Amino acid sequence: MATQPIIIIGNGVAGATAAREIRKRMSEVPILMISGETELHYSRTALMYVFMGHMNFEDTEAYSRDFWRKNRIELKQAWVTSIRGEDKAIELENGEVLEYSELILATGSIPNKFGWPGQDLPGAQGLYSKQDLEEVEESAKTAKHAVLVGGGLIGVEMAEMLISRGIGVTFLVREKNFWGSVLPFEESRMVGKHILEHHIDLRYEDELVEIVAGDNGRVAKVLTKKGKEIPCEIVGLTAGVRPNIDWLRDTEGLELGRGIKVDHYFRTSMPNVWSIGDCAEFTEPLPGRRPIEQVWYTGKMQATFLAETLSGNEREYSPGIWWNSAKFFDIEYQTYGVVMPKPKEGEEVFFWEDQERKLSFRVHFETASRAVTGVNVFGLRHRHQVWEHWISEKTPVTEVLERLPEANFDPEFFRQVEPEILEKWNTQHPDQQVKAAPAAKKGLFSQLLKTLNITS
Amino acid sequence: MIRESHSIVPPDPQLDKVQRLGLFALGIGLAMLFGSLFKFFSPQLTESLFWVMLLLVMAGGLVYGLRTHLKRPAGIQNNNITRSSISARGALGWTVGIIITTFYVVYYWWPEHIEGMVRFFDPLSQLIRSKPADQWFTYGAFYTIGVLVMGTKAIVKYRHSRYQIIRTCSIILSQLFLAFLIPYWMEAFNKPYFAPNYFWPLEYKVMMPDKFENLKEAGTVGQFIFGWAVVMILLVTPILTYFYGKRWYCSWVCGCGGLANTAGDSWRQLSDKSLKAWNFERISIYTVLVFVIVMTVAVWVTTAFHLIPETSAQLRKVYGFLVGSVMAGVVGTGFYPILGTRTWCRFGCPMAAVLGIIQRFKSRFRITTNGAQCISCGNCSKYCEMGIDVRWYAQRGQDIARASCVGCGMCSAVCPRGVLNLENGPVDQREEYTFDLLEDFKSRHKEKGVQAASAGKPKAKG
Taking the CB of the first residue and of the last residue of chain A, which one, N or C, has fewer CB atoms within 10 A? Predict the structure, then answer.
């Protein structure tokens, strides 16, 4: 009898990466990936581009049907209803029972709802899944105005989506600043200004109180804490996401917290059951990291570590230097290391910005050792590997600034801002002057000159 | 918070008044052009009407194009491309495709039917080269006006990217001067026709024995023209391609690429990304290359030894018909709204084939990926006009060194996470690695002096 397959529930980036990485390491084991959402894995982060008409949905499918077939990864579109640990089996919505040798739970997230009256009305929704996309497509056909609740990444994406169809957007942000729990004030201010530039009605320090239905039973208006009444046909509930684990509540032997509890090897409390991605919660978080990591990259990384462990080479999760990136309308954002809104104890900040051109650069470093601990860049592209190196090696901030052009990943001919950054540093730190290393010229012509040794 | 006054009404995704005004003017101009086909205008009025038509077409196109992209702040402006009838193979797209295709067919093979339109262009031809227009002058004028107007639109559309601004300026100027004005100015001075941005094997005629005889008769200028053609293909092309990849030509100088990246910009995403298309591309483009080499050699040998000249003339004729007219013109441009731009560049152009071989095996040029930042969204692949599945490499953290890449830079521009970059730094400095999520940075940064060419390793997907 053939061995039972490794079953992966969920085909988001964590599940799909796990399937790929397991196959790379174990050529024989049967793998089955199940998802109720779609048959093929797609890029969740690209849903917005489908709505905006940049891409068709098929374009977001990162690997073709053929790819999965060639790699003998079986796909099944179905909703799983329960796990039977004692039988090492799962049960599907249609009653079908499938046995596994190992089970990987990668069920992702669902949008947060905080018990607002009217939160389940037609027209009120989050944006996470393909089904959410279909729902907002439907609502957008007739909608004139939308209210978004919660100023984070999904909120700003939804704002960009809706205005692309000419739907007005009121954006309710509880904090004083945009995404103020993550972004320092200046970056938050830049993003906030840019959101206004896109004709969004951005309202700080106001919150959703109630969603009111109209005669058609759909969303008709919202009431806010400041007593405002905003007529709308769509309410975007974009106040973050939480692990999609409600269906597991009654599973015997599976320890749950906010997410599925796992150790540093992604083991759950059930034998042969593992969990990765948005739905997993570390019983003991890694130092300096959150217990639940809800980011594309961490999903990918966790899946890779798990594949290593499952193939017999036990690997404790050690993701290295944190990084993330996003885009706020037209402003790209990258971060490496840890940059909290306010510097940590014993840390200093250096910040440069060009408000006109919407560019900024922030570096955090230890006061005593001068070692850099994190960087935020807005409107600039920086090299992942270079920053990872600088942060891991505790490179002093002055050396980093001197060598800053090495990190520059902007396209050719883009204005090089390193001299302006240095100038600001030198003005602020007369006792620690930094001399610019000879500019790493990136232009076509200068490359030629350099190659031919015409210039040194 | 600094709060500037901004309207909270988002820009209308539909056509607004200014856009409509632009389209209206453009429409009247095009209608006049159409009218000229039937010699609709009285001879006394024709000349002034021609200038009015030119003004309406250019101004109308500009008003429409600029308004479309200035409605929103600088940034990627691809909203609604997958839904709009003209850019998503809808009824409008097909209509435009059929009109352009018909136009090409008539132009190439039944020019007598467009005599009225050719005469309409006499004023411009007189101005530039002091003689009446012919079908080729009229075609060149259309082409150049298209590149000028739509190029300006592209500059505004991509105004957040200095790479795109500078590159687009280069292709506009190249088309205007090298491919249009200079050749006709040469004619005006009774010198041989000479477009400095085209040389063998794309412009095979320059290297044909009959042209060689013409050039010999033309004295110093003729020698210069022939010398230019030889130096460009034998010396300049390999050197520039080694340093910068094929883009120096395909995306900066060439008129075919120029039209694709200006007039054709809203169709770039229609290119076929399938493995099948890639396999077909590799067969078709090198077949054309072999064809043009065989044809050129055959014509020279038969001319030199006075052997079977009919056969080689026939071969040249077949090449001219199949490759020069059908592939490059009718299909290559006429099918823009259906097959995407760059169909000719990808499947047929022998110059692109030569450049591609150099780029793939002996060039510093490659597209590098930034660590593990890819989110697999697919924008890079979607907007690659050469049908390269860029994401296939990007999501694996691999550099891209494909023969077909023309270096337009659009994958880098549309990437929402800043993952892709066109680079041509020295080869020995490059690290060839797949960003391994398991390794800590130390093992990732081991010295690995791997050669550039091996970066595009995957032979097929799987």
Answer: N
Please report the pLDDT score of residue B341 as a whole number: 94
Stated as kind and residue range, the H or E segment containing B401 is none
Q: Which member of B74, B378, B462 has the closest CB to residue A59?
A: B378
ipTM, 2 dp:
0.94
When pLDDT is averaged across residues A295-318 and rounded to a whole number, the result is 96
- B437 pLDDT more than 70: no
- Please tell me which of the candidates B80, B409, B445 has its beta carbon nearest to residue A411: B409
pLDDT above 70: residue A256: yes
Superfamily of domain A323-447: FAD/NAD-linked reductase, C-terminal dimerisation domain (3.30.390.30)
Residues A195/A202, Cβ–Cβ less than 8 Å: yes
The count of CB pairs under 8 A between chains A and B is 198
Cβ–Cβ contacts within 10 Å for residue B449, how many? 10
Report CB contact under 8 Å: B421, A315. no
- The correct answer on CATH 3.10.20.30 for the domain covering A124-239 is no
What's the fold here for domain A6-110+242-310? FAD/NAD(P)-binding domain (3.50.50)
**Architecture (CATH level 2) of domain B365-456:** 2-Layer Sandwich (3.30)
